[in-house]
Specification:
heterodimer; A: 310 residues; alpha/beta; D-Maltodextrin-Binding Protein, domain 2; 11-stranded mixed sheet; 12 helices; 39% helix; elongated; B: 218 residues; mainly alpha; MetI-like fold
């Protein structure tokens, strides 16, 4: 290495150039829409299937950021995304109420399933609904025959799980960690942990993640023991980030996205979408009146708003 | 092998090299002179500064990611630059991790250099900066080691890159964030494969550096 004084200036210049390169869009000139969604939505493969339709129709590129539900909402609150696709109804309603989102429109729902070992010591498969199933798990858990593995991360799945315990009249904070494992992990990891609780492990999972892990042989001992209760519906909604709050968001394209994903053509695509194993995962439900919440400020200027609770 | 999500492995490998390589270069340009300055000067609080530097070896990458996120988020002070969820943000987050590592190893290396060399050079009329450069040249093997370790830290980290990059396909998806994605989706074999690719790439970089060293270009 020889004397480097004359090179310093050149290197500095190169560094500046390198950094600038990094922030240049891959395809300059095309509009970009930043969509923040949850990992379960992304991992199902649905977005990869339908987004090219949007990208060609509106001549743009959609940048998809997939993180946990809590993080998705934070990104929306900070104005770092243009539109959110999430599945935490309670948080979403608050999000719009607080003025972070313009509106909340239903898109589709998929289902949660209660999975467990084939031996089913808690008799979950005989439960009449999800609440009954959870009561049985609690009963057997405290007796040492069952273990429940929880997401524990305030995700949509976790929020749904907590609501079922509430409906069953049970207080999660009293659950002993000898049978109730709060892991703070994603759905895939939670299923793996459940599989390891031989003949005892139960959990609440979305169908898509369950099927993927089941078909790839990672969780050979976990079966779907209970499903179908409307309480287990997992509602996805789309929320544009409020441009009054964050003028830098691409509000026009975000609105286009809402209209597009609720259009009959795309709703059809969503309903017909199957995962790699032939399972239909989503039930589109963005029918008329599916605008569920609207930001209070602009609602003054709306003629009639149809509100649907779920 | 099933993949619900597809992408170009070559593209993400090149992006990994670009992001981590840039972070290593930037981090070294700051870390080496910093380390040399701290290593050679005597001043009150030097011991404390060295301890802090070494402690930062263990700085959690996700925290570096959070820090950069808060600065460049729209809600943050530098949000208007629109750097979040771009490779630039990833480079900056990784640079923060590289700097203490390179500085720390450089401190150790220049401290090993015989003090007489610096005094001799100064007595021959060299400026303070020239004297520092001379010592760096003497400690060159250690400095290169510092840079290599810095690169290792950058190419392997995932927490910061995922946080500030967003793992956007075609834009900010790199090898490590892809491994995380594949693992999350249960494609363990594919994840391991990507890990092997990463190791091969890192090996290539170090072999290239060795080659440069042998030809006295480095």
């Amino acid at each position: 290495m020889k004397d480097k004084s004359p090179l310093v200036g050149i290197i500095v210049l190169a560094i500046v150039m390198i950094l600038l390169m990094g922030s240049v869009a891959i395809q300059p000139g095309r509009q970009r829409l930043t969509l923040a969604t949850t990992t379960s939505a992304y991992d199902s493969g649905l977005l990869e299937k339908i987004l090219p339709n949007f990208e060609s129709k509106y001549d743009c590129i959609v940048d998809v950021i997939a993180v946990g539900s809590g993080q998705t909402m934070e990104i929306g609150k900070n104005g770092d995304a243009d539109v959110l696709l999430v599945h935490s109804p309670a948080s979403e309603k608050q999000f719009v109420k607080d003025g972070y989102g313009t509106s909340r429109t239903l898109v589709a729902y998929n289902q949660f399933v209660i999975v467990g070992p084939e031996s089913d010591p808690a008799g979950v498969s005989q439960a009449v609904n999800a609440t009954d199933a959870f009561k049985r798990i609690y009963q057997n858990g405290t007796e040492g025959n069952a273990i429940f593995v929880s997401r524990g991360d305030l995700s949509g799945t976790h929020t749904k799980e907590k609501s079922i315990w509430v409906k069953a009249g049970l207080n999660v904070s009293t659950f002993s960690n000898t049978w109730y494992l709060s892991t703070g992990q994603g759905m895939g990891a939670v299923l793996d942990i459940t599989e390891q609780q031989t003949n005892k492990g139960y959990t609440l999972s979305d169908e898509a993640t369950y099927y993927t892990r089941r078909e790839t042989g990672i969780i050979p001992h976990l079966e779907i023991l209970n499903q179908g209760d409307p309480l287990l519906y997992n509602q996805y909604s789309v929320i544009p980030v409020n441009p009054d709050r964050w003028p830098s968001v691409n509000a026009t394209l975000a609105t286009d996205f809402v209209n597009w994903i609720t259009s009959p053509e795309i709703q059809n695509m969503i309903g017909n979408f199957t995962d790699a194993y032939g399972h239909k995962l989503f039930v589109p439900n963005a029918g008329p009146g599916s605008v569920a919440e609207t930001h209070t400020l602009s609602s003054q200027f709306q003629a009639v708003i149809a509100i649907r609770t779920d | 092998m099933v993949d619900a999500v597809t992408y170009d492995v070559v593209q993400i490998t090149l992006l990994s090299l670009y992001v981590s390589g840039s972070a290593t270069i930037l981090g070294s340009l700051i870390g080496v002179p910093l380390g040399a300055a701290v290593g050679l000067k005597e001043f009150g609080g030097k011991g404390l500064l060295k301890t802090i530097t070494y402690t930062m070896y263990g700085f959690p990458p996700v925290i570096s990611g959070l820090f950069i996120y808060y600065i460049f988020s729209r809600a943050g002070p530098l949000g208007d630059f629109g750097i979040l969820f771009t490779p630039t943000a990833m480079i900056l987050a990784q640079t923060l991790l590289v700097i203490p590592l390179v500085a720390g190893v450089t401190i150790t290396s220049v401290s090993e250099v015989d003090k007489n060399i610096k005094n001799t050079v100064l007595s021959l009329g060299a400026s303070d900066r020239q004297a520092t450069f001379t010592v760096i040249k003497e400690a060159w093997v250690g400095v290169i080691t510092a840079v290599m370790i810095g690169f290792g830290r950058a190419i392997a980290e995932v927490g910061a890159a995922y946080m500030v990059g967003g793992n956007i396909e075609g834009k900010t998806r790199i090898l490590t964030t892809s491994i995380m994605l594949e693992t999350r989706m249960g494609h363990f074999g594919y994840a391991i494969g990507l890990g092997v690719v990463l190791l091969i790439v890192a090996c290539g970089v170090f072999l290239f550096m060795r080659w440069l060293q042998e030809r006295e270009l480095l």
